[in-house]
Structures are given as C-alpha cells and as structure tokens.
Amino acid sequence: MDRFVQFLRRQLDIDLELLRVAREDAETGSTRACLITPIRGFRECELKARLLTTHHHCGSGEGPCDALGESYPPEDERGCPTRALLGLPYADRPGYSARWRP
Q: According to its UniProt record, what is one Pfam family this protein matches (predicted)?
C-alpha cells in the first residue's frame, strides 16, 4: 500500500513544481503555455493531497472506506477505490503499475 501512496505523492510534487514554473512564466511574461491556470492547478493538487490524507489508512482496517466495506484487501496497494481513482491521471507516468488501475 505504501508504494502506491508514495507514487501518488511524487506525482503531486511533480505537478506542483510544473505549476510553480508556469506561474513564474506567467509573472515574467514568458510565452510557454500551460493547459491549466496555476491557481486551478494548485487547487487540484490540494484537493488530491487532502483526499489522499483522508484515505491514507484505507485497506488497513482503520480507514473510512474500511468502515463502509469498500476497501481493497490489505495486500492490494491501492487501499480503496478513491485512492485508485486519484492515481488514474498519472497512469501514463513512469512508475505507475497497471495493477493500480481502478
């Protein structure tokens, strides 16, 4: 379970760095384009980080999805459907495992 969470956190860190560069480019008038505005991107990263924190213990018997009976077994690194969905935008990045797909 920890490898999946570590992977997701790395992807969020990468997104935040890309957005920081995009914001700096916008402030300096650079012509490089970003598909999303930096503010929206930062909000999306905050949302994903909060969801990941909320569902951190899912699959261990102590998470919110465990209480609802919606978590994956402990040997499944995803933890719960919410965490699996959080990883889906990063399916094309190195390190993403096909078994993590929802």
A: DUF6221
How buried is residue 18: exposed, middle or buried, by Cβ count under 10 Å (0-12/13-18/19+)?
A: middle
Q: Which of 93, 73, 84 is nearest to 4 (CA)?
A: 84
* Domain ranges (residues) in the chain: 2-93
What is the chain's pLDDT, residue by residue, as a tens digit (102 residues)?
A: 588 889 988 988 988 888 888 888 888 887 666 666 778 888 999 999 999 999 999 999 999 999 999 999 988 999 999 999 999 999 999 999 999 999
Return d(Cα 102, Cα 94) in angstroms, integer. Answer: 18
Specify the pTM. Answer: 0.69
Question: Angle at Cα 88 formed by Cα 10 and Cα 91, nearest 5°?
Answer: 70
